[in-house]
């Protein structure tokens, strides 16, 4: 009794000591996120916003440095450091830090010598020596222990990103794991150790290769160079140069880390379900020992040379032609940003701006948009246009400049500015619904040094800008001092091929585990009880009128609504509805033109869309609930009284045909088409389109009639919003008129996955330095919900995130790819079939290595008790802390119906997780994936590939672009 009393007193004392420190924080009146802003004694900023919708927290750790601060001789350094931050510390990522340290020091020195060598043979010899020492060091390296730690606490979205001014590390964690998360991050940010260097460098180079076919990246880099010729925004890119990536400096990386990764240059940004008082005490406990930097002041640069007249340049690349323009603007924290953002919406808000109505709605161009890019040192205002068939880039530029002239003359409707403010408020409420949206705002404000009061009050300030003030600003801002980049289609002769390095695979050491990881695994935390959607309680099912099923979910958080009309047929039943969905956006009625309708919806702060899936059609209306009746009346009137416009139809057909042709030029889009062709067959969703001839021969009245008759088919009505069920039914029934007797829906003819039961290769041509490749197997195996838990854990263990077998073997151990994964796919309908696939994007001369090693880990999957436990813990904690809410409740209900279930599949999986063993995973993989024949699907340049390796696999079928696309 006495002992218990003393223990209680001791515990109370400890509790008091934690709370005794008075953590001062700042708030801003009117902040709907109720943000608390703390500054710890060492300068670390902490932004906290509570949102109790689900027991999870979005965390960002933002460092106020990016590629702008890269040393000029080692560009790409900030981004590469971002990758290395996942390699561990002295406490994790290694089995013996003392034995490892001198080897890592030797590797560092060898790289310093290597980067100065120019003779190819000397470089090859030096690299071989680096590879040899790396092999010895790798005996102590435990790859991906950081990712194991995140999996062990149930984190999702483990990632990071780097840009000009920021390097940011992201995690989404269960709300009961704050202590473990903070402990891990504090060690990581104070004690990072660079290891696994040469294989990770090769992964970064693979990321560079992927970017070579992205013309948008090249456009932005070229435009930046013209805007800011003597500032790092213009003189260096985030990914870095090819030469610098192949000649890195670990010494420079360490110096960079020691300078910029300091608490007085970092912000922790968190939004989610937590107690802020307890959270800040935890953060202080782990981060207070982090020493501030003596000098983290951002560098200053020479003034930019004057830009007084237009400057043009031309670049080439594989994708569709386009033109980008830009004007310089002040830094992000200048109040000029208010006017820039308002001007952006006047020109291009996606619905009722000058570009939207005058250029896109009228189809004077293929597409056009514009907006501001707000950066810490300098900002810019961009215009981007894509030409129609036969249209010059110069004409597109002239048309965009004509809209700028209209802005400068004030030639836009008086009600546009108040409409913009309403939509900004709506967008703000939508961002608040997301923890990610909240935390993103914190990051932007911190990095750009925008005072939070300034951010909170931005919409109010913008609302006070008058039309005349905006016009005056536009006349001063849009001078002749702009730059233009014309992007033509062609082969970039400046791209160089670099042979793969001779890397010896490092061991994955997946059965090794540091004490740090064990401690986190064994840490006791208050458990989160799972809460799965209950369709009988969370979803109200009623009738709208006499025949329409009505699904209702109450929005108790804000004044936004989402209304969906759901039809259970789609493209596979009638491909013409794809055309209907495009055409309706161009039409008006007898009373209102298409442009007037867009303006009216925008004024109401409501949006609508018609989306045609392969097996369903949805008509969606969303926005401010107070305006729902008016918006629904407008939408119903449009759908019932749409007026044919033959000229608009003809223009739409021309744009559609050009858009289809442009898709062939995008590597990623092309591969999506190829994969669908290879796994579904000639009749697939990408090819089953209304043909060019059919488009030209069809009277557009046919498509309008299809639209008018849509609501006379059987369909479901779904409402999520603040109205009561009774109010919602009355409001919807008043406007949504249907036939007295609804017609049966057209029958879907699904695009089903095709069998793949023998080895074969399908290859299609694309000229690039890398290939996209997938292996696909489908033996027609039926889905069994009793296996779902095993499959869920298997996907996490084998092919999921950075802790999976695929990532470890293909990227971490061998540097074969930046992007690699595998997946055992469950069908969305109970009578469909399962299949599995692997995916990798890799340099052309690494293809054979990728094929060989993918087969190795398929046929002999590594089995690890430690890795299995982490995978199972990850799935368990993620599912326990996830919640199905809002319109997602109906989507979950629909998914369950398709699978023949009366509860969510997640609930079934969770109940069976305890029973899943490592042997279950091993047996499942052996039975379903090992030694199975595959269809190899490859997009690449055959001249650069080892075709003999492919011919040994099985028959090689060469597809033409026309075969893949069907046109």
Describe the protein in words.
With 967 residues, this protein is of the alpha+beta class. It is 44% helix and 17% strand. It is built from 39 helices and 24 strands. The strands form four sheets. A seven-stranded mixed β-sheet has the order 1-2-3-7-4-6-5, with helices on both faces. It has a six-stranded mixed β-sheet with strand order 13-14-18-15-17-16, with helices on both faces. A hairpin with a 4-residue loop joins strand 16 (606-612) and strand 17. Helix 31 (788-798) packs across helix 34 (865-881). The N and C termini lie far apart (85 Å). The model is unreliable at 1-19 (pLDDT under 50).
Topology (SSEs and partners):
Blueprint: H1 2-20, E1 25-26, E2 36-39, E3 45-50, E4 56-63, H2 77-84, H3 97-114, H4 120-137, H5 145-152, E5 156-162, E6 167-174, H6 178-191, H7 197-211, H8 215-227, H9 232-235, H10 242-245, H11 250-260, E7 266-272, H12 276-287, E8 311-317, E9 322-329, H13 336-347, H14 354-360, E10 367-373, E11 379-386, H15 393-409, H16 416-432, H17 435-447, H18 452-456, H19 458-463, H20 467-477, E12 482-489, H21 515-522, H22 535-538, E13 540-544, E14 548-554, E15 560-567, H23 576-583, H24 594-603, E16 606-612, E17 617-624, H25 628-641, H26 646-663, H27 667-680, H28 692-697, H29 701-708, E18 716-721, H30 725-735, E19 760-765, E20 770-777, H31 788-798, H32 805-812, E21 819-825, E22 835-843, H33 847-859, H34 865-881, H35 888-898, H36 905-912, H37 918-928, E23 935-940, H38 947-953, E24 956-958, H39 961-965
Parallel strand pairs: 3-7, 8-12, 14-18, 19-23, 19-24
Antiparallel strand pairs: 1-2, 2-3, 4-6, 4-7, 5-6, 9-11, 9-12, 10-11, 13-14, 15-17, 15-18, 16-17, 20-22, 20-23, 21-22
Helix pairs in contact: 2-11, 3-4, 5-34, 6-12, 14-15, 15-20, 23-29, 31-34, 31-36, 31-37, 32-33
């Amino acid at each position: 009794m006495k002992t218990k009393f003393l223990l209680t007193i001791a515990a109370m004392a400890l509790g008091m000591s934690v709370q005794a420190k008075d953590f001062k924080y700042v708030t801003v009146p009117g902040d709907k996120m109720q943000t608390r802003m703390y500054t710890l004694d060492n300068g670390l900023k902490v932004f906290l916003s509570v949102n109790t919708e689900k027991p999870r927290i979005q965390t960002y750790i933002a460092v106020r440095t990016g590629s702008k601060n890269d040393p000029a001789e080692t560009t790409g350094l900030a981004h590469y450091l971002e990758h290395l931050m996942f390699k561990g510390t002295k406490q994790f990522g290694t089995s013996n830090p003392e034995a490892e340290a001198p080897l890592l020091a030797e590797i560092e020195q060898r790289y310093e010598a290597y980067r100065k060598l120019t003779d190819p043979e000397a470089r090859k010899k030096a690299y071989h020596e680096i590879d040899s020492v790396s092999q010895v060091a790798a005996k102590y390296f435990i790859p991906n222990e950081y990712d194991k730690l995140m999996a062990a606490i149930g984190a999702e979205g483990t990632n990071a990103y780097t840009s000009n001014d920021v390097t940011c590390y992201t995690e989404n964690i269960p709300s009961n794991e704050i202590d473990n998360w903070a402990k891990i991050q504090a060690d990581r940010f104070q004690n990072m150790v660079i290891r696994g260097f040469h294989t990770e460098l090769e992964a970064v180079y693979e990321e560079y290769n992927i970017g070579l076919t992205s013309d948008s990246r090249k456009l932005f880099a070229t435009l930046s160079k013209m805007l800011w010729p003597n500032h790092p925004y213009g003189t260096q890119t985030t990914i870095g140069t090819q030469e610098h990536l192949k000649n890195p400096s670990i010494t420079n990386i360490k110096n960079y880390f020691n300078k910029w990764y300091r608490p007085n240059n970092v912000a922790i940004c968190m939004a989610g379900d937590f107690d802020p008082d307890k959270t800040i005490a935890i953060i202080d406990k782990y981060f207070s020992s982090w020493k501030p930097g003596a000098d983290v002041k951002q560098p200053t640069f020479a003034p930019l040379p004057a830009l007084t007249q237009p400057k043009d340049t031309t670049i080439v690349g594989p994708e569709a032609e386009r033109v980008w323009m830009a004007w310089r603007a002040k830094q992000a924290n200048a109040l000029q940003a208010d006017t820039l953002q308002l001007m952006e919406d006047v020109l291009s808000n996606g619905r009722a701006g000058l570009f939207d109505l005058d250029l896109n709605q009228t189809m004077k161009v293929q597409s056009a948009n514009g907006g501001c890019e707000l950066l810490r040192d300098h900002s810019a205002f961009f215009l981007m246009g894509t030409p129609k068939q036969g249209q010059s880039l110069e004409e597109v530029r002239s048309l965009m400049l004509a809209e700028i002239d209209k802005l400068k003359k004030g030639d836009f409707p008086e009600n546009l500015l108040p409409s913009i403010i309403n939509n900004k408020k709506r967008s703000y409420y939508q961002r608040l619904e997301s923890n990610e949206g909240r935390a993103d705002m914190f990051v932007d404000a911190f990095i750009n040094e925008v005072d939070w009061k300034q951010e909170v009050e931005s919409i109010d300030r913008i609302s006070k800008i008058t039309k005349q003030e905006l016009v005056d600003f536009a006349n001063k801002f849009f001078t002749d001092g702009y730059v233009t980049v014309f992007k033509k289609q062609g082969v970039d002769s400046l791209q160089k091929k670099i042979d793969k390095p001779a890397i010896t695979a490092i061991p994955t050491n997946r059965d090794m585990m540091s004490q740090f990881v064990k401690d986190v695994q064994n840490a006791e935390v208050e458990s989160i009880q799972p809460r799965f959607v209950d369709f009988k309680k969370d979803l109200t099912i009623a009738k709208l009128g006499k025949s329409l099923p009505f699904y209702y979910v109450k929005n108790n958080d804000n004044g936004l609504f989402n209304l969906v009309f759901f039809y259970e047929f789609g493209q596979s039943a009638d491909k013409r509805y794809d055309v209907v969905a495009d055409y309706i956006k161009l039409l008006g009625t007898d009373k209102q033109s298409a442009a007037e309708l867009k303006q009216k919806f925008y004024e109401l702060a409501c949006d609508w869309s018609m989306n045609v899936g392969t097996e369903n059609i949805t008509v969606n209306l969303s926005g401010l609930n107070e305006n729902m009746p008016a918006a629904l009346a407008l939408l119903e009137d449009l759908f019932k009284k749409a007026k044919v416009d033959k000229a608009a139809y003809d223009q739409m057909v021309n744009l559609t045909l050009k858009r289809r042709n442009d898709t062939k030029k995008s590597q990623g889009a092309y591969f999506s088409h190829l994969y669908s062709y290879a796994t579904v067959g000639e009749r697939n969703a990408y090819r089953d389109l209304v043909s060019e001839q059919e488009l030209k021969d069809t009277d557009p009245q046919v498509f309008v009639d299809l639209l008018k008759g849509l609501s006379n088919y059987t369909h479901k009505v779904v409402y999520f919003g603040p109205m009561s069920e009774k109010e919602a039914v009355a409001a919807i029934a008043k406007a949504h008129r249907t036939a007295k007797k609804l017609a049966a829906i057209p029958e879907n003819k699904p695009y089903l996955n095709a069998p793949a039961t023998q080895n074969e290769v399908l290859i299609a041509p694309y000229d690039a330095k890398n290939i996209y490749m997938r292996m696909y197997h489908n033996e027609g195996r039926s889905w069994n919900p009793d296996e779902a838990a095993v499959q869920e854990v298997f996907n996490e263990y084998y092919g999921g995130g950075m802790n999976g077998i695929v990532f470890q073997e293909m990227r971490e151990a061998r540097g074969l790819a930046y992007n690699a994964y595998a997946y055992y796919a469950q069908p969305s309908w109970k009578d469909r079939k399962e299949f599995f696939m692997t995916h990798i994007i890799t340099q052309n001369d690494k293809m054979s290595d990728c094929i060989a090693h993918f087969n190795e880990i398929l046929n002999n999957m590594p089995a690890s008790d430690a890795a299995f436990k982490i995978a199972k813990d990850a799935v368990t904690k993620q599912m326990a802390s996830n919640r199905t809410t809002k319109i997602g409740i109906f989507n979950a209900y629909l998914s369950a119906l398709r699978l023949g279930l009366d509860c969510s599949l997640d609930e079934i999986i969770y109940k069976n997780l305890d029973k899943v063993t490592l042997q279950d995973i091993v047996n499942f993989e052996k039975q379903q994936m090992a030694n199975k024949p595959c269809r190899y699907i490859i997009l690449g340049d055959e001249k650069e590939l080892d075709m003999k390796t492919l011919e040994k696999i099985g028959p090689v079928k060469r597809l033409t672009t026309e075969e893949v696309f069907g046109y």
